[in-house]
Amino acid sequence: INWFPGHMNRARNQIEEAMPDIDLVVEVLDSRLPYSSTNPLVDELRVGKPCIKVLNKADLSDPKITKLWIEHFEKQDNTHALALVAEDHKQSQKLIQLIKNIVNQSEDKKTNIRVMIMGIPNVGKSTLINSLAGRYIANTGDEPAVTKRQQMIDLKNGVVLSDTPGILWPKFENFHSGYRLATSGAIKNTAMEYEDVAMYALEYLSKAYPEALMTRYKLEVLPESGESLLDMVARKRGCIRSGGKVDLHKAGEIVLHDFRSGKIGLLSLETPEMMVAEEIIAEELI
Ligand code: GTP
Fold this sequence. Notes:
The chain has helices at 5-18, 41-45, 63-74, 89-106, 125-133, 175-184, 194-208, 210-217, 226-236, 248-260, 272-285, and strands at 24-30, 51-56, 79-83, 113-119, 153-154, 159-161, 166-167. It folds into 2 domains: 5-167, Rossmann fold, CATH 3.40.50; 193-285, Conserved Hypothetical Protein Ylqf, Chain: A, domain 2 (Orthogonal Bundle). A hairpin with a 4-residue loop joins strand 5 (153-154) and strand 6. Strands 1, 2, 3, 4, 5, 6 and 7 form a 7-stranded mixed β-sheet that branches. With 286 residues, it is α/β, with parallel strands linked by helices. The structure holds guanosine-5'-triphosphate. Residues 56-57, 59-60, 85-87, 119, 121-127, 140-142, 144-147, 167 line the site of guanosine-5'-triphosphate. Guanosine-5'-triphosphate binds next to helix 5.
């Protein structure tokens, strides 16, 4: 999906229309970038209904940082948080249990709890829906935006998933968020230059996870700038064009592929603390 204002309005209206029938919202986030992979509209559109923030792809993120994010979300009003790996049926069943605990705390035993799964493209909504249902329902894919309008799904365990696709657009207004989303693969590869994204990622990882980076690419030192880092990785990996010129595009592909498949290690791109600082800076700029 290209997010034009018309698409955004339609998505928003559909969610608003469906919300009165919903008992609980599940927002799927990428646990490596919970701030950048959220759309703040979720908290506005859920109009006070309980929400579980699912920190998905927990097999790729730094468990210590993910724990901090859980604590961060649990402090928010009417909000719960759970880290998981969407494909894992056992883990998705924990989500069902949590949904039931939350809804049945506030109301008399509900028989069919209506849940809307929300989130930006590529965070794993379809994977989670399939795993919850224990069968293939939603399309999944590596490229963003394959979730089509879904059928109403009765999980036959007391939980019903809404047929409204709660797909929202990623937020582009923050420079860092754009790069982190691109690093994770949530923004299509064509939308940003591989080299630029890889340089951004390397610069961050060299500060947050220096050992992991040095080990993966057999580096003895870590230069400050992303450009020098990418150049070094290119040389180490033999990304040299005929004529001896360094192929930064190829090196960028390697770095991003390694990051996305967890080959550098279990890594997170942002912490709750960093986000507070970034939001203060953003406010000062306005
Ligand atoms: P749209 O259809 O674009 O809205 O995306 P979506 O949110 O439905 O995401 P989808 O389920 O298609 O997953 C996107 C990619 O992430 C796929 O390649 C999935 O295999 C992968 N993925 C989903 N969950 C996990 C997870 O827990 N761990 C890992 N490593 N990959 C996951």
